[in-house]
């Protein structure tokens, strides 16, 4: 049995804890006949959340950064820092909800690391700004960002804050999916940050989609030019956000129903998932994002290039000095890179990851999960993920430390 409240006790608190994003849904589920098959302990864990550090970006976003300063039985002291950053529609909870002994955040703390977990702007934990209101209908400027801004502004704010608190000059970075995308953005646009990393552990980092065979991705990509405009007109600039998306949209007749069924089937109807963890996962996922993040990936798919966000010709000229958005210069991403992937990943095709590996100038290791059915979400929630992937990640971090 685990308790996420262990994390509350372990962290250095700068603010009070609060409930998980989909706690109302979990409570309703527990009252239903289906909920009777889940234990009370799991139910409680699904409703728990963590304490926070507040970090302010240079463009005014107030982000939540969570910390596990040391492992069980350890005492505070000097130890390497590691920053974990989540994927699209996710949060720091991804690295904690499987509990001590299983979740990557806890395993790293027990392995001797000072663990920090970031929450990108716009997710449930980072919906604040010094002047902009994320819930305003009249002014929607809070939501005018993609993962370009996450890499350009959020990551430097996290990194500088962590190194100041930790007292060291380098840290490890672990990014899943969009967390890997934003790392590539940062170090191509601000290459001086490469010197701040002991290693980059990319867990299926999303960049190229040349071999993408995901029907949903390809369908959305066809509408990337009107996706944000339409969403803003419908007051839907926040996608799958702090509102209870599951109970509002994963219902019969909803345009999102097929998406929900596909996602849930892919996540849970397999032998490598513990079905009793369902309410815990759904208690924290999805955690929300800006519609522009989705549109930007759509642009990458349609243009067949990993490039900055395409506004329009005039805005591009003002922002980039060219009528079309420039590609990210990946030759500038010189931090030691360790790339991890699964052959059954339908979100980041392994062939596209291998393309990225051939372009980055300092790839130390490319690690394929031994299990051939390992997919995109197995990085977070598979029962065998420690043996299949996490042990290799820790070994890669140790390797990078020896080569400083």
UniProtKB/TrEMBL annotation:
Protein name, as recorded: Lipase
Family: Belongs to the AB hydrolase superfamily. Lipase family.
Signal peptide segment: 1-17
Active site: residue positions: 177, 345, 376
Every AB hydrolase-1 domain range: 80-374
Keywords tagged on the record: Glycoprotein, Hydrolase, Lipid degradation, Lipid metabolism, Signal
Gene Ontology MF annotations: hydrolase activity, acting on ester bonds
Gene Ontology biological process terms from the UniProt entry: lipid catabolic process
Top-rank lineage group of the source organism: Eukaryota
Gene3D superfamilies assigned to the protein according to its UniProt record, in alphabetical order: alpha/beta hydrolase (3.40.50.1820)
Coiled-coil stretches: none
SUPFAM superfamilies in alphabetical order: alpha/beta-Hydrolases
């Amino acid at each position: 049995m685990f308790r996420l409240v262990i994390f509350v006790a372990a962290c250095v608190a700068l603010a009070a804890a609060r409930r998980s994003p989909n706690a109302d849904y979990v409570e309703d589920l527990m009252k239903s006949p289906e909920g009777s098959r889940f234990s009370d302990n799991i139910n409680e864990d699904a409703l728990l959340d963590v304490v926070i550090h507040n970090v302010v970006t240079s463009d005014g976003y107030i982000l939540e950064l969570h910390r596990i300063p040391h492992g069980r039985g350890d005492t505070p002291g000097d130890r390497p820092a590691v920053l974990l950053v989540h994927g699209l529609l996710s949060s720091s909870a991804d690295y904690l909800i499987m509990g001590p002994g299983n979740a990557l955040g806890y395993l790293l703390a027990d392995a001797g690391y000072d663990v920090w977990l970031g929450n990108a702007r716009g997710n449930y934990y980072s919906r604040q700004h010094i002047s902009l209101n994320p819930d305003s209908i009249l002014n929607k400027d809070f939501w005018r960002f993609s993962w370009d801004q996450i890499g350009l502004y959020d990551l430097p704010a996290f990194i500088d804050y962590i190194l100041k608190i930790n007292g060291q000059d380098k840290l490890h970075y672990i990014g899943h999916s969009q967390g890997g995308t934003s790392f590539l953005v940062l170090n191509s646009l601000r290459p001086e940050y490469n010197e701040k990393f002991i290693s980059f552990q990319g867990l299926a980092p999303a960049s190229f989609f040349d071999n993408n065979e995901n029907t949903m991705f390809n369908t959305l990509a066809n509408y990337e030019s009107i996706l944000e405009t339409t969403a803003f007109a419908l007051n839907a600039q926040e996608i799958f956000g702090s509102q209870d998306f599951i109970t509002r949209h994963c219902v019969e007749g909803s345009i999102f129903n097929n998406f929900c069924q596909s996602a849930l089937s892919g996540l849970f109807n397999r032998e490598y998932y513990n079905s009793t963890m369902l309410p815990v996962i759904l208690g924290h996922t999805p955690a929300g994002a800006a519609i522009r993040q989705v549109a930007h990936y759509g642009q990458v798919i349609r243009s067949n290039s990993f490039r900055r966000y395409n506004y329009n010709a005039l805005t591009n000229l003002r922002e980039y000095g060219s009528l079309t958005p420039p590609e990210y210069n990946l030759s500038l991403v010189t931090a030691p890179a360790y790339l991890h992937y699964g052959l059954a990943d339908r979100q980041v095709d392994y062939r596209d990851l291998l393309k990225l590996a051939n372009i980055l100038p300092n790839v130390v290791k490319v690690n394929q999960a031994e299990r051939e059915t390992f997919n995109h979400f197995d990085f977070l929630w598979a029962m065998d993920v420690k043996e299949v992937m996490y042990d290799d990640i820790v070994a890669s971090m140790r390797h990078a430390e020896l080569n400083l």
